[in-house]
Predict the 3D structure of the following.
Amino acid sequence: MRVLITGGAGFVGSHLVDAHLAKGDEVVVVDDLSTGRLENIGEHVAAGRVRFLQGKAEDPAIIDPAFDGVGLVYHLAAAVGVFQILAHPLASIRTNLDASSAVFERAAARGIRTLFASTSEVYGKNVSDALNEDDDTIYGATKVNRWLYAVSKATDEFLALGYHQELGLPVTVVRLFNTTGPRQTGAYGMVVPRFVRQAIEGRPLTVYGDGGQMRCFTNVHDVVAALMALTATPAAVGEVVNVGNPREISIGDLAALVCGIVGSDSKVQLVDYESAYGKGFEDMRRRVPDVSRLRKLIGFVPTTPLEATIREIAAEIAAEIAPGR
Ligand code: UDP
């Protein structure tokens, strides 16, 4: 089968590329390399295993040829990370909405099985014990750019479900909860690679706010396995599905855990939100997935321990900064 992955040079996308190639599929990648990195898929491209089209998923000159002979689509291309969204609000909203329309339109016209990568951000300020896909979304004011990402991804979800309802697009919407692992760059927010790099380099770990905010971190390999299983599950068509590891940890405890694993005596430096993100930023206090729908659909949920994921990231960063490289 030929698989199209938009955002395939990015963090999650490139791991998905690896997994589909390992299965023997052909892979086409569309990526504008705004946050994705060619080196993530460089070897595959050089060896002719991946057809790489560099450009915007909303550009017909890119996306039309990309659909040639495709039997499965993952739409991952999107504005990534809180820093990026705060710095470039217009481009972020355009990317998220225009690219999704372009991809869903073509996939619907051809009846191609599609997976859309949304985010746990769409729950907004809802801090329930375990967020269920049918729970309310709660957003702040439109003057606060923070909510632009959540609202644009939620609008993409409406688009995907609208294409499903009215034009029969066989789509599954997944909400990813703080996915992390090798190849994730800390440049756009992403707390785990940031802390690991800070610890390895002996710099202070920048904990924003009081460090009491809670998150659940999911290993990227678990996420890829779940996404592939979902696209092979007919009952997942037309569904919105949380993908995450339900184990919860505070950001303060994450900092201590990273230092312990890396063997670093770096100290924690508390940074107020305004210094980190600028004025008027609102952080989510808590975000925990209810994964019962995922378990029911595919029979498993992400379970890789955060400790193992931190070790994987640390090994990659240590190799990268080793002397002689
Ligand atoms: N965070 C932090 N220090 C950093 C980067 C992030 O304390 O250097 C916090 C951030 O404020 C948030 C959590 O870690 O509460 C997770 O941030 P990330 O950007 O990884 O993902 P988010 O959950 O915001 O989508």
